[in-house]
Specification:
Blueprint lengths: L2 E6 L2 E7 L1 H16 L9 E6 L7 E4 L10
Antiparallel strand pairs: 1-2, 1-3, 3-4
């Protein structure tokens, strides 16, 4: 199973998280966003950590107003 770093506005804010830990962190940010906190979910990125591999894979929100009906 992969491990992940969480970035906000390109800054590292959480490191070396499991899938479950990522889900918990993202749930917390979701709750904060929907409670009115000034937080932009489009600026949150997950970066998979590939130990021993210099290639990283970025996972990010692809939500835009144009594709929001999916």
């Amino acid at each position: 199973m992969g491990r992940f770093n969480v970035l906000y506005e390109g800054r590292l804010i959480h490191t070396d998280l499991s899938h479950e830990e990522c889900a918990e962190i993202l749930q917390t940010y979701s709750e904060r966003f929907f409670s009115g906190e000034d937080l932009n979910p489009e600026l949150i990125e997950l970066k998979e950590i590939n130990y021993g591999n210099t290639e990283g894979r970025m996972l990010y929100s692809e939500y835009t107003e144009e594709n929001s009906s999916r």
